């Protein structure tokens, strides 16, 4: 309704949030070294991925960094065709949630895969990659 | 806790509303609700505005103050509620509690969203960011359909749910949307058309997804004292509200075949309202995507886990079936202006429970006079279930 009716353009505004990663910075450093890390609570033993600096279960701030082996099995997947603004220049991509041997689940892109092969239960492995000035992690088929 | 009644409801036309800003869109719903309740803005002691996109999807950062001023409610106690796509239910709950606790005798909830002032990829981005930006959106660019598509893939694998079953939800809801003058979509669709529509996030296709809509709905809530003063007889009562939530990170969920928040919120609502799923005559469930309605059937106890596909195939959620679901067109066809949806569900249930549904073909025959609204925020990040009765 009302296409063609008068409107005002708002003042344009570009927002870039400076997101503090203090407490997880080791995660991003290790990605550059090819390692995907989780944190394990010294208080209650819970393993966290994504990593945390404080435990919401026992409220301990003592965390140990542990490297994930990265092998896992797809629990859910989708092929994203209609992309959001900041990903619109990327070709369509496949996103999965996979459960790792260590017990944690990881949400990430699944790369180097034939779409017809992707299914729940498929074996995948995490690997790291440098894209621009950011190190990222993604799954590839085993 | 005091008894609380709904004495007035109003809903705007849903759709692409480039003809009005957020204040005028709200006014359209509030005016109808005030006329319905026979009150004016000066009578209102507390106003809760549900809107998720303030300053993000549309220009006003403080929509509650803008709406209160434009609709003559300045001076009332005021808040904005955010619970993503359940913001309208959060506002309803807030207004309900203000009356139930005895703090005020007359409160209003307004749900409103303007979603068509930005380009579609930007809207997809804003909704995709609503989860855990740092750990999920930043690296991988999920969209809202993508999140629900993850659930669809797991549900299809585990229970054999088919793309045709998902399509049947769209077919049903478009059918009822075509009978609802307020609905965004007025067209019917066929299973073949749904299956042939372009993929948005596999297995979800265009017709599996709700549209990007503008809309507003308003609800007037009153205490028993106020009912006597206004000489209201036989109102619709709030029988109970249940609520729950789910993790921000989708990767921390136990499974992807249902929303635990829906299970917990509905159990609470049934307990408080002293009803069972089989008592519900008419339900508005959160069908932002077709898979969401299938999961809602199961999570709300309308059928066993895994049998949602069968329920829609057998036509049990049509008018005349076991339980009428989304006979206003649902989010799928009525439209889903995210902050408005919760209040729009209450609007529909009140109209149904009074026997005033428009058009008449979609009036549900009432046996127990019980209606249920199930409103999800995010992907089971928030959930409110509200039971109304007469
Ligand atoms: Zn701990």
Provide an overview of this structure:
The complex is a heterodimer of chains A (142) and B (390). Chain A contains one helix and eight strands; from the N terminus they run αββββββββ. Chain A is mostly beta strands. The radius of gyration of chain A is 19 Å and the shape is globular. Chain A has one helix at 25-32, and strands at 37-41, 47-48, 63-67, 71-80, 93-100, 105-110, 123-131, 134-141. In chain A, 27% of the residues are buried. Chain B has a domain at 4-118 and 213-230: Thiolase/Chalcone synthase (Peroxisomal Thiolase, Chain A, domain 1, 3-Layer(aba) Sandwich), CATH 3.40.47.10. By secondary structure, chain B is of the alpha/beta class. Helix content of chain B is 38%, strand content 18%. At the A-B interface, strand 4, strand 5 and strand 6 of A face helix 4, helix 5, helix 6 and strand 5 of B. Strand 4 of chain A pairs antiparallel with strand 5 (199-202) of chain B. The complex binds zinc ion. The site of zinc ion (ZN) has 8 residues of chain A, from loops.
Distance between the termini of chain A: 51 Å
Q: Strand share of the residues of chain A?
A: 35-45%
Helix content of chain A: under 10%
Q: Unreliable runs of chain A, pLDDT <50, ≥5 residues? A: none
Radius of gyration of chain B: 19 Å
If you compute it from the alpha carbons, what radius of gyration of chain A comes out, rounded to the nearest whole angstrom? 19 Å
What name is given to the CATH topology of the largest domain in chain A?
OB fold (Dihydrolipoamide Acetyltransferase, E2P)
Specify the number of helices of chain B.
14
Sheet with the most strands: spatial strand order of chain B:
3-2-4-7-1-8-12-11-9-10
Largest beta sheet of chain A: what is the strand line-up? 6-5-4-7-8
Secondary structure category of chain A: mainly beta
What is the CA-CA span between the terminal residues of chain B?
19 Å
Number of helices of chain A: 1
CATH superfamily of the domain at 4-118 and 213-230 in chain B: Thiolase/Chalcone synthase
Number of domains of chain A: 2
What is the CATH-assigned architecture of the domain at 4-118 and 213-230 in chain B? 3-Layer(aba) Sandwich
Shape of chain B: globular
The share of residues in extended strands of chain B comes to 15-25%
**Sheet with the most strands of chain A?**
5 strands, antiparallel
What CATH calls the topology of the domain at 4-118 and 213-230 in chain B is Peroxisomal Thiolase, Chain A, domain 1
